[in-house]
Structures
1.
Amino acid sequence: MAQICLDEIAHSYLPDIQKDDEYALKRIHNIWEDGGAYALLGPSGCGKTTLLNIISGLLKPSRGRVKFGDTDVTELPPEKRNIAQVFQFPVLYDTMSVFNNLAFPLKNRGFDKEYIDRRVREVARILELEPVLNKKAEGLGADAKQKISLGRGLVREDVAAILFDEPLTVIDPQLKWQLRCKLKEIHEKLQLTLIYVTHDQIEALTFADKIIVMYEGWIVQTGTPQELFEYPNHKFVGYFIGSPGMNFVPCTAEGDAIRVGNALIPVDEKTAGLAKNARGKLEMGIRPLYLNISCTPVEGGFEVNVKGVEDQGSHRIVSVDFEGETLKARIAENDRVPDTTAWITFPKEWIRLFADEHLLK
Amino acid sequence: MGLTLEHVNKVVEGEHHLADISLELASGSRNVILGRTLAGKTSLLRLMAGLDRPTSGRVLVDGRDVTGVSVRKRSVAMVYQQFINYPSFTVYNNIASPLKVSGVPGDEIESRVMETAGLLHLEPMLDRLPSELSGGQQQRVAIARALMKDTDLLLLDEPLVNLDYKLREELLEELQAIFDKRKSVVVYTTTEPSEALKLGGNIVVMDEGRIMQTGKTSHVYRSPATVKTAELFSDPPINFFNGRIENGRITIGQDLAIDNQAPFNTLSPGAYRFGVRPNHLYLTRQQDSDAEIRSTVEISEINGSETFIHFKFDGCQVVLHEVGIDIRKIGSEITAYVNPQKFFVYSEDGDLLISPDGLAPDDAKER
């Protein structure tokens, strides 16, 4: 195991790079701590798979170096990098037993029989694969197969990191919870460096200690789930994290308040100062969870028309029209549901300001 | 147009892919079919479309038997999981193709393509080829093409499953607006409870080729007629405990006893299964009458604004889902609080007896 350092990495799939926007990966400089649980999160085409392939050695970056601990591995092919990979679809030897599937990466590297037996059983125990160890892989269900795939990734102790490329995409929702918990448990017990690539914010947020959010070839933010939720660095993070994403409305500074259309929203001193000194297009952001909505008039509340209510089981999403913009508010399952009119307030501690899409702080 | 299925079976190589399906889908209704992979969702859609013929049973359109009538002779459009477009046609021609085939005049085609392209935000890419588009855009093209003809039946088979999470959220919202404008019967399949809830309308919960329950989506969610339906329609998974009721008093395992209270005292003494949704378990006491469940944390997950804590109680795997961030260490002791009034009570055979909202399963058109 080792720290992974991406030293000024950039990558373009074109042989001759003329302009900066021809880079699929812009400038990436990042250190991944030994034993950390990381998620690489972003939409299709954001560069997350490119970055993963650079770490695994499937791709050599156009610029920069990749280091595992003190070793520069930039020129090394995947098989010399001590990386294990788990893919979206299970990659197994169908005719082999589960035991032999799990043992394969170790046998290949010439470990002795006793060690292999001990290690395979340990991994099988964590993944609850012990009852099927002697069965052939081909007869098993999709979830069991993906567990074996995870197990093959986990069985080697000597790897620098295990890379997971959307490993739960093909799994039904109820099983996703089980498998994700298993991964967390494994991380807790084995202290391996895990890098998990996904477009699914819930998977990323619940799995990782640190999330790297990518957008158009850039890392737009690296942080804990809470940091990304409460202080999104960029509008994209505000939109991408959270369901539904953050509400944004154009605003202007006005004394100790900010103005949205005809409404003056009181803000704290710090926010007022940020608004006053801001340059570029100013917008206010607030999470649907933190936008207060009431069925009866409240002091300082803005009267709004209710455009729709969506029942999402454990909660409801209420859409309202505020100064010509649609805002969404999240209310609990048992809260009173507003009819046609509601009153909203903006808690000062949850108002965020963005200038030209970047968080002011 | 109304669609009726009467005792439909589909048997393939001795296996029942669909078993005794009877359904009535009203004109203009929006219907979600919820079920796990291989529950029979796609088989059912193919029968509705006329792509496959049932082994037995009848398919009726407005009371007219259409069993065995080819898909070409039916008014139906279908969107598949895999985005299917004509690779050598531009986006415009892909969308226009159903109208061209049926000989609609050119200027009408243009206005209708533009209208649908607008709905799905495809205007900037009408001249491109599908291969030049992202997955999300390609699926939008496939959806646009399905919407071109004003068909009586619009079938969507997990249309968003191959798309990014955030795109799904957006497209789902767009689709709802589009469904609202149409008179077609819409049938939409999904494995995800959250998607079913967002779509609303009516739901058909399926498992292993059978219909478990039908009814209004929000109603079925709050009154799942069987343990199986409750499990299928819950994400995170619903928690179940095995317990007893004696003289109105509930006991679960050694450590949990809840004093006699309505409505549980209406049940005769015996063994029952108690279900409680993860968001009805709390880490802090909500009211005096809350019952306490003590355990140790197995795994805790934080998604930025919510906390999920996994633990075991009386041998059952339990998950608690709370809004707000409350970090608990693995192995630490916790007390979860639950209002007994939030319990679903099921018989040992898994039939709903009491639901927290007092909804009887009959109201949700139980089967």
2.
Amino acid sequence: MLETIILLPAAAALLAGLLPWARLRPLLVPATALAHLVLVCRALPAGLPGTEYAMLGIDALGGLTLLVISLLYAVSSLYAFGYLRCHQEWDNRIFICCLLLFLSAMSLAALARHLGLLWVAVETTTLVSAPLIYYNRNKYSIEATWKYLLLCSVGIALAMLGILFVAYADLKGYGEANIQLDHLIKNGFLLSRPWLRAGFVFLLVGFGTKMGLAPLHTWKPDAYGEAPGLVGGLLAGGLTSVAFLAILRAMQIMTAAGQQAIARQCLLALGVTSLLFAAVFVIRQHDIKRMLAYSSVEHMGILAIGVAVGGLATYGAMFHLLNNALTKGALFMCAGNIHRHYGSKRQCEILGSLKVLPVSAGVFLAGFLAIAGSPPFALFLSEFTILRGIFNTGHPVLCYLFILLLVVIFIGMGSTVIPVTLGPTYGEEVESPRYRDTLLTAGPPLLLLLAVFGLGLYLPEPLRLLFENAAAALEVPQ
Amino acid sequence: MANVVNIILVAVILLNFYVLGTSRLGACVQAVALQGALLSLLPPLVNGWSIHGLGLAGGAFLLKGLIIPWLLLRAIRQLRIKREIEPRIGYIPTLVLGTVTTAAAFIFGDQLPLLPAHLHSMIIPTSLATLAAGFLMLITRRKAITQVLGYLIFENGIFVFGILLAEAMPLMVEAGVLLDMLVAIFVMGIVMNHINREFSSSIDTDHLNLLRE
């Protein structure tokens, strides 16, 4: 069952590589993604408790991440179908292969119960997403791809060093090096403390690079800025969730070893730094995709702070993970549509897009309000829960700082988004075969935004339970 | 056995210095290949002859010693580059830095809370020194290909540390790690080719400064 979730997209990628008909290939993406979503929804309630030597398993944390990835990917795949039909003259074989392998690798990372396997999966996501970023084939995208590839590969290499340190901690404490997650959590108290702490720092830096926590985020604005909107959404919503899961796995081991306090301090420091960096760089950011990248840095910071504070805030962070992924997907797809219509993503050239692209620009504006945490969108609830959690644990200063930075980021993003959508248009509308909103390119972001809106009004019970279980997995050693 | 292992580790450190101090790219690639090949002998020598150890040694030898160097040498030939131009920090200062970090690795390695069996072993200092050498290469060199070499040396340093933890990774996972590395170098090679094409026959990463705030 679990193997199918990983192998199905991989098999589809193989098929895409072999299919000689370029027109049929885009069909594979939505077909696979929807089948993947069905499989995930069926596997999730069953939940296989990991045995001590299993390589794959589905627990609340992994299950939540898997659901987030699968939902976002399923909606994005409809957009991908529409997007690839616009670019029929380009060779899509490599793009579609990598897109499908990307889903496979992310699923593997969510289901892995062995740190080595988790590492292999995360490194694979880096490698298969590099060609996706380079899809536009110009000077800018090659620079972004090179930075992404080198920084993330070195970051992931550091994470490997961290994994080996954790293995050494087990070797010293338990007598044999076994880095199966359930084994480590069960025997956490036996692990050698100094090695475990060193390992955690390396894991945090390594997977933090991948997640884009400041100051390790330098590749992010370039990669998100130059990637197609579709890919930007999948990276900002899916890949960052996977990297966050890897950090949460390290947190679980630290908690089991009674080292939770140190782990939380490290995570809190990175989280606050991320908010600070995002607040500084989002102001006067005239490139809409780069602006979204800094918004992604901000939300990674919020997730890190939520888990670092613990208690109610952890629950909020789990809820936020889903909300952030869905909203970022919608925003990036809309940014991609606006970019395609104007052939530019700079603020001064795309003013007043609401008049020409009512759906895309409308969703972009509403998505901005959602990502900034305005009610009634679900992000308001999750951010508010995190804030309540921070107040409950008695960090008023942190709470005020958090609110202040969020307000600064709101103003910074607003000063770009509002002219772009509502501003005055220059000159008359030229009649040219420019991109227009279609059902397949404007529908999926609208769908994602409606989902975020719906979650803000009503949270289904099974989802709430999943968030609670995921938060509980981080609190008490199992 | 311990003697052979130590000779190999000393050779690995010497190769670090050779790579840090030379400007000829072909020689650099060959040195990194030799380093990888030497390292691949270590798992069976340190942990005894087992299928697992031999499998790892064979895979690592094939990859680090043969396939990856072949890919890189081919890239050098295609891109017609012979030498590293002016590194960001000169060769002599880099060598001095390399010496300092190697010395620090040996001093620091003795302070670590190791298992009694690993005390005074050369494996951990060598690993730390190689990691530092890889980082130095990554930071100080301008050409994309020397940065890839730095990444490879860094990976070699991790490999040395991993020898202490033979049973931590099942063979399948190790195969996955090696395969990922191969694909990484392959993708980096393609990207280098495209950088070369976009920036008029140069893989100087100083050209990669279009994207900034």
